Description:
Elements: E1 3-7, E2 13-16, E3 20-24, E4 42-50, E5 55-61, E6 65-72, E7 75-79, E8 84-87, E9 91-96, E10 101-106, E11 114-121, E12 131-136, E13 147-152, E14 160-162, E15 167-173, E16 178-182, E17 188-201, E18 204-206, E19 211-215, E20 219-236
Parallel strand pairs: 13-14
Antiparallel strand pairs: 1-19, 2-3, 3-4, 4-11, 5-10, 6-9, 6-11, 7-8, 7-10, 9-12, 13-15, 15-20, 16-20, 17-18, 17-19, 17-20
Amino acid sequence: MATIVFHPANERGHANHGWLDAHHSFSFASWYDPTRIHFGELRVLNDDIVAGGKGFGKHPHDNMEIITIILDGVLEHQDSMGHKQTIVPGEVQVMSAGTGVFHSEYNHQADKDVNVLQTWIFPNKRGVTPRYDQKTFAAEERINKLQTLVSPIENDDPGLKIHQDAWIYRTTLEAGKTLTHKLHSLQHGAYLFVIDGNVSVGSQQLKRRDALGISETDALDMTASATSDIMIFEVPMVR
């Protein structure tokens, strides 16, 4: 029997700092929910709006796999490894913080907000050399199928690489279509996050920004009643 957790959009943590309007799927900063610390090795899923002309100043990270996905707007990244790059919709950035890295993220467009998904996944190796990568993923290549954005560094699957036995997928599922994701292991779980649209997983309906975690199963079936933009995070559930 599969174990299922449902996280409605309106029950996420919320903090509006003026320049930053943040929604947290898991406990983060001043928002704490003991039932929502993480989902397996998935530690953070933040849905952030960064105001025009604002951003995150230089700050440190270590021993975490950090994945940034831009939904709208343009964000500039700078880090202590010497990278200075912009990230736009359709692009994904990964940063293995490893032994330690400093970075900043800034929205230089004064008249336009940035909507960014910030994801942290616990690594399976500590103390690695920090690394950075970034790639564009074509939207037409995920219509009614799973597009692999991130996969394990030890694996030959497509996507950007991280130090964890985890995968991140994105799909645009058209109305009336059903898609099945087969998990790589029974020790894994899948966390489905609806960016936009209307999706059902079994008897559970999910709307915009709703999420559902499922574990102790070998597959996840989803059916769209409206064209839907969906993320799937497959992670080990051992933590």
